[in-house]
Amino acid sequence: MRVCVGLSGGVDSSVAALLLKQQGYDVFAMFMQNWHDTEGTLHGDCEWEEDRFVAEMVARKIGIPFYFIDLSEQYRQRVVDYMFSEYEAGRTPNPDVLCNREIKFDAFLDAALKLGADMVATGHYCRKETLTTPEGKTVYRLLAGEDPGKDQSYFLCQLSQEQLAKALFPIGEIKKPEVRRIASEADLPSADKKDSQGICFVGKVDLPEFLKQRLRSKEGRIVEVFDAYYEQDPLYRRQREILSAISKDPEALSMVSSFTGDNDVFRSVHGQQANESGCDRPESSFDLAKVSALSLEELDALATPISYNIEFREERYRSGKKHTLKTRWKDNPLGRIAGTHEGAIFYTIGQRKGLNIGGSKEPLFVISIDPEANIVYVGEGHRHKGLSRSCIRISASDLHWIREEGRLEEGSFARMRVRVRYRQPLQDALLLMRKDALYILFEEPQRGISPGQFAAWYDRDELLGSGII
After folding, report:
1. CATH code at position 162
2. DSSP, residue by residue, 79-130
3. Which residues are part of the catalytic machinery?
4. pLDDT at 416 over 90
5. Which residues span the domain enclosing 420?
6. CA angle 170, 173, 176 (to 5 degrees)
7. Cα gap 122→111, rounded to integer Å
8. 184 and 251 belong to one structural domain
9. Average pLDDT, stretch 145-157?
């Protein structure tokens, strides 16, 4: 079998190529260039040139043919343009997910097939399993990588059966330290190369500066929202009422996440085998009969993010010995104008850095943005109410199922494990399928959920589907 390895110059794809060569495959490597510009990148140079040089040395060391392909135009049209349009609309996209669906397993795959490849291999930490249905149909399961700290199945959550049919993941069963060891023992030039960071094929960027290549800066207000806002907000009260009604223990109900970060918190990729879908909890904290009976109005209320409307009025006062007449904002029990920004679209929910606002006991976090009014809303502390959400809605048109056998039928629900970010530990949740949307009700409130993100759900170690929040 002839296999094309997407050789990036990193240690993971290098070891993937080496293992395939050792296993007797007819292997060749192809390096893809997807990005030329350096504006907005933190390094300011053409890192891809060094990556190509290392990749070519790796191919020479292994003894496989090396090819180069420029996919920058496809990448710009199908990934970068999408990213800019999403940020302009006030959403938070994941370009890496799109890169895998549109470039690595589409444009790159097509180029590899034209060069005679039967399959394409990458250095992703994930696994594929082939099944045969009772009807004799071949289907593919996408499984988490065995290394819980490096599992990259989330990035492949939009792949189709046709794409998986041509995909190989040689290092999915291996943990990162072992990959490094194999590379070192083989004396591969990439053995000590640091892992890439930032946007796929672009690198680490100063996001506002990167976006300013196309999106216009516009000064606006940063508004801090006080806790009192939620006690008077009808939607927040309605959400608390619904959650209390379906909770097995209303007294223990919390609408605030206790989780403060994603890094270095890993869980088994297989989950708790004795529990449904590998969930952490043996049973749901919600009454399943009551959850199943929730109306569309109730589900939509739970899944609607809180919006903010705080009016500020000026007052005139006299200051100093000369009693100079000045103006200031009147105190508002619901919030305060905390500062200014250069454009609401340059901020994402959960963001802490870049606000440049002092004077708070705890750090301020972005809890919402209003692109039309150009307002950034912030809250103080990790446990601010505005940082947490208990339910999200994914439109039926934005749903993607890896295989049809895993699809939820209309009116059904299931317990599964869900993540909305790559580094996020899988979270217990209830998935409720309705005609026009899928609703995901988390067992515990989730922090920093933003429109535009991809949610992916798992049954133990199998990724069943995904969708855009």
Report:
1. 3.40.50.620
2. IIHHHHHHHHTT----HHHHHIIIIIIIIHHHHHHHTT-SEEE---SEEEEE
3. 99, 200
4. yes
5. 217-469
6. 90
7. 15
8. no
9. 96
